[in-house]
Amino acid sequence: MAKVHLGCWFIVGLALTAPWCRAGDLSPRDIASLIDERLHVHGEPSVAFADDATFLRRLSLDLIGRIPTIAEVREYLADDSESKRMRTVQSLLHYGAHYKNMATFWRRAWAPQADTPEFASLADGFELWLAHELQQRTRYDRLVAKVVTWDANAPPQGTIDPSGFYLANESSPANLAASSTRAFLGINLDCAQCHNHPFARWTREQFWQTAAFFAAPDHDADGKPKLPKIRVPDTELEYEPVLLSQDKIAWPQKQELDSVSLRSVLSDWMVTEKRSYLAKNAVNRLWSHFFGDALVEPIDDLSGDAAESGERADLLAELAQIFVQSGYDLELIIEAMVQSDAYRLASLTAGPPQPASESAAVSASPAMVRGLTGEQLYDSLRTAAGLPPERSDVGRGSRPDRRNEFTSVFYVERANGAERSISQALTLMNGSLVNELCTAANNQMLASVAASPFMSFEEQLDTVFIAVLGRHATAPELAAVLRRFEEQAASPQQKLGDLFWVLVNSPEFNTNH
Fold first, then answer.
1. Which DSSP helix (H) or strand (E) runs through 239?
2. Of 468, 471, 463, 464, which is closest to residue 54 (Cα–Cα)?
3. Contacts (Cβ under 8 Å, ≥6 apart) of 398
4. Mutual angle of helices 259-272 and 140-148, in 10-degree steps
């Protein structure tokens, strides 16, 4: 059994059981200790942690969407203090790139249609709006409410707004019902749209009752608004809005009834419903982002048996409760996840796996190797080449001729798989972007390293390793590269470019591990 840290756990226990103690009184480290205890990270013989270079690379990719720069790697590796992980986490959480990275994450979860050519233009304003809200530390429940209750008839405030969510769903009540429940609650109603499934929790009637919240109010004979009735296509069936929980609704006064007030009822219920779908879904999706797989799978079906009695359902429920009690503080939950020892587990362990403790309900396992998204790959290539690492764009409108084209080729629905398609591999090997970056004329890192009078050739090679892989070259690697280059008559600058090409095409660069 893992050893319990009594001082920390006394605080955690109070927060989870005493109504007078707020989760906001907990530090991220307290919550991280809860995660580690529940996953039995401590005290198990099979547990191995990633080294400093691997951890910094993983953290940078997850929080700011790119690999660390040479300077960031050198600074972190030279820091021997015990607090360096905590300080680096807190620093990256306040980078502008963090808010842009998480804006892409939430937009992709909420409006995945914008990753298709048909709706690609809708991502720009939505992601800019999300980045602004996240930087203002808008509570997660308020963030969702702003999307659900967005008023399409209000005077336009420019192009930075959540309208992309509605446009991606073609403003269809049926599409909006399916997307809203999936994106914000982790409830999959899609199959119920057409029929009742004998093993499904949700019915066709409930689907269309939810869709009715997104319909425009009807009007009575006197012209006063009344609850809408939505007709099921190709039938005579009509449904008024009813909550999935069947709770009684206190409707707005007739004179105040409009589309926004209708959706406000739905939005308020999302926050107050007893199963905490809103909080569980947010925590589950964040866990998937930082750990590869969600605590409960499938990620868009928290109403299934796995969410009630699955292997990690209790941990999801505890973290969701903390999230609610904290005031839906996204930064608190994110920091807790990446401060945990579970987050810094190695992806590879030495020797055969050891059996978990008999008392462990969940055992520690190696970190999942994840594929990079198109955005991570593009921004990391630029960072490795010494080009400005921070994204100057957020959506898909700034550089359609390069960035958007590249990221669309490397689109992945979930990063918990690391496979590359043949076309993606060929794009990395032979594409114009990588080939350009292999020359000093387009690669500031190569140009400065090749021109440095204070570096030996071995040090120049090692610097390329740091720039691309975020670590020093090992002695066998350096020896192998030197042997290979001894056989070539190319200039030192060209050799450095060849090494850059080899490393960016390696699995180590192409994965988050």
1. strand 238-239
2. 471
3. 124, 392
4. 150
> What tokens does 245 get?
């929980």
Q: How many Cβ atoms from other residues are within 10 Å of residue 27's Cβ?
A: 15
CA distances from 294 to 62, 77, 365, 440, 476 (A): 15, 31, 14, 42, 37
In angstroms, rounded to a whole number, what is the distance separating the alpha carbons of residues 198 and 190?
15
As a whole number of angstroms, the distance between CA 402 and CA 56 comes to: 28
User: HEC profile for 385-438?
Assistant: CCCCCCCCCCCCCCCCCCHHHHHHHCCCCCCCCCCCCHHHHHHHHHCHHHHHHC
Alpha-helical (H) ranges within 149-258 are 163-168, 173-180, 204-211
**288, 298 Cβ separation under 8 angstroms:** no
Name the DSSP class of 251: P
Q: Are 213 and 266 in contact (CB under 8 A)?
A: yes
Report, as an integer, the average pLDDT of 68-91: 97
Phi-psi region of 249 (alpha: psi -120 to 50; beta: other; left: phi over 0): beta
How much is the pLDDT for 488? 84
Q: What pLDDT digit, counting tens, does each position of 193-206 carry?
A: 666 665 567 888 99
Contact 437, 443 (CB under 8 A): yes
CB 60 within 8 A of CB 92: yes
90, two tokens: 């807190």
Q: For residues 194 and 211, what is the distance between their CA atoms, to the nearest angstrom?
A: 13
Residue 158 has pLDDT above 70, yes or no: no
CA distances from 43 to 6, 66, 360, 505 (A): 15, 33, 11, 38
User: Which residue type does 147 have?
Assistant: V
Cβ contacts of 92 within 8 Å, gap of 6 or more: 59, 60, 63, 64, 98
b/e string for 345-356 if b means 16 or more Cβ within 10 A?
bbbeeeeeeeeb
Calculate the alpha carbon distances from 187 to 132, 243, 364, 388 in Å: 27, 13, 28, 40
What number of other Cβ atoms are within 10 A of residue 159's Cβ?
14
Question: Where is 238: in which H helix or E strand?
Answer: strand 238-239
Question: Rounded mean pLDDT of 7-13?
Answer: 36
Smallest CA-to-CA distance from 277 within 229, 344, 323 is with 323
Residue 375 has which token pair? 């955005």
CB 136 within 8 A of CB 324: no
**Cα separation values, 469 from 260, 375, 376, 430, Å:** 50, 17, 14, 20
Give the Cα separation of 54 and 110 in Å (integer): 30
Which pLDDT score is estimated for 179?
A: 95
